[in-house]
């Protein structure tokens, strides 16, 4: 199964998944996005034939899989989400469009891009002191990449160099992923 040729040449990232959530086809913008996220070439986990489930952040996986299931059932589904570059605030609109044989066309359009205002630049000593909990773990929002302050409250900030980690799966063992209150509200308005 392939994308319609008219979907190839657009700046929106577009890919097609089959009913088993395996990537069947993607456009050039998807290729550029995957390279940007992972550095050099298309790694094995992003290419055609891979399950996209492995790429979904654990904490929003159920929510996103549910949207895909509804799209497989014939409904157009949308979700807004954040995916920042190191110094840019970016919001995307995902549209899931039902295709033939329970395939889904997944389209991701950039809707907001502006400098990441309010980000704090820190060194590793600051990170240890201000953002690590008693176990040495830093909690990062897997949606907006903000980091939770170690004060125990609900204060979250964008922190360089933590914003340089562009994909949740890249996190090292001392990063745990959660959702900040703003993203929790945005992704799970019913909770
Ligand atoms: Zn967040």
Short key terms for the protein model shown above:
binds zinc ion, 4 helices, 191 residues, single chain, 5-stranded antiparallel beta sheet, Beta-Lactamase, two-stranded parallel sheet
Mean pLDDT equals 84
Give the CATH level 1 class of the largest domain.
Alpha Beta
Bound small-molecule species: zinc ion
Proportion of helical residues: 10-25%
Strand order of the largest sheet: 2-1-5-4-3
CATH architecture of the largest domain: 2-Layer Sandwich
Instruction: Count all strands and give the number.
Output: 11
Q: Low-confidence spans: pLDDT under 50, at least 5 residues?
A: 166-171
**Total separate domains:** 2
Cα shape: elongated
N-to-C span: 37 Å
Describe, in plain words, how this protein is organized in 3D.
The chain has 191 residues and is of the alpha+beta class. The chain has two domains: 5-115, Beta-Lactamase, CATH 3.30.450; 120-187, no CATH class. The chain has helices at residues 28-38, 58-72, 124-131, 181-187; strands at residues 13-17, 23-26, 77-82, 88-98, 104-115, 120-121, 138-141, 147-148, 156-157, 159-160, 175-178. The strands form four sheets. A five-stranded antiparallel beta sheet has the order 2-1-5-4-3. The protein has a two-stranded parallel sheet with strand order 6-10. A hairpin with a 5-residue loop joins β1 and β2. The N and C termini lie far apart (37 Å). It binds zinc ion. Zinc ion binds next to α4.
